[in-house]
Design a protein that fits this description.
By secondary structure, the chain is mainly α. It contains ten helices and no strands. α2 packs across α5, α6 runs antiparallel to α8 and α8 crosses α9. The protein is elongated and about 60 Å long.
C-alpha cells in the first residue's frame, strides 16, 4: 500500500530533531517567541513550544519549571543589551545608535511578544514580568543614557547638569507610552529621530 506523501511530509516536519546545548536552547527560545506572538500568553504551553521546536517536552522541563520561567529566559536571550553602546566621541552619535537599537528591539518579534504579554497577563503575573522589563530594559537603558550624557558634558556637547535620572527617563518613558498607549503604528522609522530632536535634545544641548 502506497504511503501518503502529505502525511510523510507532515511527520517529517514534526519529528523531533536531535540537538543539544545552545542549538537546542535557541530553537526553544525562537519557538517560545513565535508561540507567544501568534497565540498569546494564555494559549502558550510547554507542549506547544516543544512541538514547534521539534523537541521533547522533557527537554523543556529539565531547564524550566514553568512557562513563566521559559518566557522570561526567552525574552532575556533575544533582547539586545542597551549597555553595548560604545563611546563614539559624540553624544549625538551615541544617542542615535542607542535609539536605533531600542526601536529595533521594540519592532522585532521579541518586542511584539512583550507587548502581547503585557496586554494579556493577569495582575499577579504582570508584576513578575514588569520587574523583568524594568531590570532588563528600562534601568539599563537609563544607565546607558546617563553615561552618554556624562561623557557629553565632559566633552562639552551636553550642557552641565543635564545628566539626571529624570532626563534619562524621557526616552524609555516616551517609547513605552507610544507603544503601550498609542500603538506600534505610531512608532514609524522616523519616530526615534524625532524623539531625540524634538524632546531630548532641547533638554540637554549645551
Amino acid at each position: 500500500m502506497a504511503h501518503c506523501p502529505v502525511r510523510i511530509a507532515r511527520e517529517a516536519l514534526t519529528r523531533p530533531v536531535r540537538r543539544r546545548g545552545k542549538e537546542l536552547e535557541n530553537a526553544i527560545f525562537e519557538a517560545t517567541i513565535d508561540q507567544l506572538t501568534s497565540g498569546g500568553y494564555a494559549r502558550l504551553t510547554m507542549e506547544g513550544v516543544a512541538g514547534a521546536a521539534r523537541t521533547g517536552k522533557a527537554a523543556l522541563y529539565r531547564r524550566w519549571a514553568s512557562k513563566d520561567e521559559l518566557v522570561i529566559d526567552a525574552l532575556d536571550a533575544t533582547l539586545p543589551r542597551p549597555y553595548d553602546t560604545p563611546d563614539l566621541g559624540s553624544a549625538d552619535l551615541e544617542l542615535r545608535q542607542l535609539i536605533e537599537v531600542f526601536m529595533g528591539a521594540m519592532n522585532s518579534p521579541t518586542g511584539a511578544a512583550i507587548q502581547t504579554l503585557m496586554g494579556e497577563i493577569d495582575h499577579e503575573r504582570a508584576e513578575v514580568f514588569k520587574d523583568f522589563i524594568g531590570q532588563r530594559v528600562i534601568e539599563p537603558t537609563k544607565e546607558t543614557i546617563l553615561a552618554i550624557l556624562r561623557r557629553g558634558a565632559d566633552r562639552g556637547d551636553v550642557r552641565p547638569g543635564a545628566a539626571t535620572a529624570l532626563v534619562a527617563d524621557v526616552v524609555p518613558a516616551m517609547l513605552l507610552y507610544q507603544v503601550k498607549i498609542c500603538g506600534r503604528e505610531n512608532t514609524g522609522p522616523d519616530f526615534g529621530a524625532r524623539l531625540l530632536d524634538e524632546v531630548l535634545y532641547p533638554l540637554i544641548r549645551a
